[in-house]
Amino acid sequence: IGLSVVGTLWFIGADIPGLSGGEEAPETTEEIFVPSAYTVLEKALVTTVQAEGRQRYAQVHLAFEAKDMNALEAANLHMPLLRSRLLGVISGMDFLQLQTPEGRRNLADQMLVAANDVLEQEGEPPLQRVLLRNFVIQ
Hints:
This protein has 138 residues and is of the alpha+beta class. Helix content is 42%, strand content 24%. The chain is built from 5 helices and 4 strands. Strands 1, 2, 3 and 4 form a 4-stranded antiparallel β-sheet that branches. The mean pLDDT is 87.
């Protein structure tokens, strides 16, 4: 009866300890979930944006997202330089484009590139995303 059970298990491919025949199952590597961490800029970025010869104002409240806490700590350390670069990105945008959802997504993408350039120059890990928490243009 025992041989019948072992033979049946072997035939259907069940793993029997000691009877693996020298073959080892390939190890699968699962990605480990790493939750995101955030840092919120308390002060809004406020700057002017050109619109058909007139000056308009843009006020942007931001948050940074990263998987690595060192990136957020570095962002806080280099915040004056980051704020300066991010203000330059906002002021370089087109007013009409900022009124569209695509324009705001483009702004967030450009801000991420600018922020990661600053962090890379300082030898720090990159941010994952720049999040627009509140966005006002007038």
